[in-house]
Amino acid sequence: MAASPLSLEDLHSDVLYIIVGQLLSIGGTVEHLKHLSTTSRRIRIHCMPVLFRSCDVGSSGGIPPKAIHRFVKHLKFTTVFVSLQERRSRRYVDPRPILHYTNEKRVDKETKIPSEQQPFWLALEHLPAVRSVTFASASGGVPWTAILKCLSYPRITSLSFCGDSVWTCVPPPAVFPELLPADSQLGLTGLHYAVNEWRDVESVMAKRDIQAARTLESSYLCALVLRMSNTAESLTLPIDTAPLIDMSGMDWLRLTALSLTGQWTASTSLQTLLLHMPNLRNLSILASQRRGLPHPLILTEVSKQRLNLHSLTIAYPNPEDEIFASIGEELTCLSLRDSPRYYLYPQCTEDWMLESMETPLLTSTDILSMVRRITAPRLSKLELVYRADETEFELLPYLSLVFPLLQQIELHRYRASDSDNDSIPYLDIAKALTTIRYLRVAYLNLDFQDVIFSPWRTAEYPYERAILLQARGEQIQRVLEAGRNFEDVALLARPSNAGM
């Protein structure tokens, strides 16, 4: 007798949970999951922990329904803690009064500050499963009292602050010995504090005191980060205000992921710090270069112990950095890139806008010298940013020799100089990439100047330029398909106002 076909309803609960979880990771959306949850009551029960694991709460929003309280693991607060008047006085909003009309008179529009009866405080009280909290749109910053409120719940192990919620207008962190003793360790495993990579430019434009903001930011980071050495597993910090020197005197035995953003303000090596992070697996340093400073070195000498990294990202790396000779063979993802993206700089039309930033793009010769020092036979993903020179067509075929398992490559290839009008040998570049045996996907920014478009000018409607870019992409695709594993190529389509 033939066995009847199985349906989703017949699968074991553990299998259903895996399917639901994988649906989002392979490109599905919450909407797809919603549709799946309507197929049956049993399927809906298994979808609910994923559908409701994250919850957004605003200043005027309510608490989620009680039926889903046990599913909410992550809270995102969209809440302003600092008055409009205070932010305006420090030029973190337009200093001119913001007005709205009523039937009777014109009044200043003021932000309503959360009280202990508003959703921020109530959500923490009523959602017992919350493990992580993110603050967004908290213009002026998140005050110490709100952070202490989160820390008062031992179940909360991760705090994140979006780039629009950095500390600029809040009071410095206060000392509350009864709530947080001076020598106490926090239970946080994750702290993620992301800063806008253009904040120095924005501060110049708005005539803000960036140093005062950095001092305030540093005081908050010291109060939090230095109490996490025993528990931290993942940190995202600005390199210019994080207490890196103090951190270098501590052991970070559980830390597996470190991301440094912001801007280098001193050419300080991370040699000692990384030695105290023996289990670090993911290192990202997306810090912009400061004009007038020597090109920073992460490691000034070959590390006594191998860095067993799985992923390494460095913006504007120094070709002489000894980190490339210190990487273990476990590396699977490598990015030697720019930050901010070099193609965004033409939007800064005035010299004073970039007076504090440097853009030391490497040449293909520089990249080749670094790649030759790396031993990473398991590498599968690679990103390179460089100016083309005479060694470009020595570099590209060489990648297949040192990274035999490479599957995905992203190239940002710029002309030898911005005034160089020579044609771009894009088909030769594609042919050089065919030597990479297992290459599946290529993301290419080849600096095509004739396909940049201005979306705001109807006279420069991008249709014809888009067709030209598509035609080149199809040519490159045909060349790359000579590789038996190749699947797809993507070319960067760049409007003239990208990123601004």
| Most strands sheet | 14 strands, parallel
Overall geometry comes to: globular
**What is the share of helical residues?**
25-40%
- N/C terminus separation: 67 Å
Radius of gyration: 26 Å
Structural class by sheet pairing and helices: alpha/beta
Number of strands: 18
- Taking pLDDT < 50 over at least 5 consecutive residues as the criterion, the unreliable ranges are 94-113, 455-459
Q: Averaged pLDDT, please?
A: 83
Percent range for β-strand residues: 15-25%
Q: DSSP helix count?
A: 14
Could you characterize what this model shows?
The chain has 500 residues and is of the alpha/beta class. It has 14 helices and 18 strands. It has helices at residues 13-25, 30-37, 41-51, 84-89, 119-126, 144-151, 199-206, 210-225, 244-247, 271-275, 364-371, 392-402, 426-433, 463-480, and strands at residues 54-58, 74-78, 99-101, 106-108, 132-136, 158-161, 190-193, 234-238, 257-261, 282-285, 289-290, 311-315, 333-337, 357-358, 381-387, 408-414, 441-445, 488-491. The protein has a 14-stranded parallel sheet. It has a two-stranded antiparallel ribbon with strand order 3-4. Strands 11-14 form a two-stranded antiparallel ribbon. Helix 11 packs parallel to helix 12 (392-402).
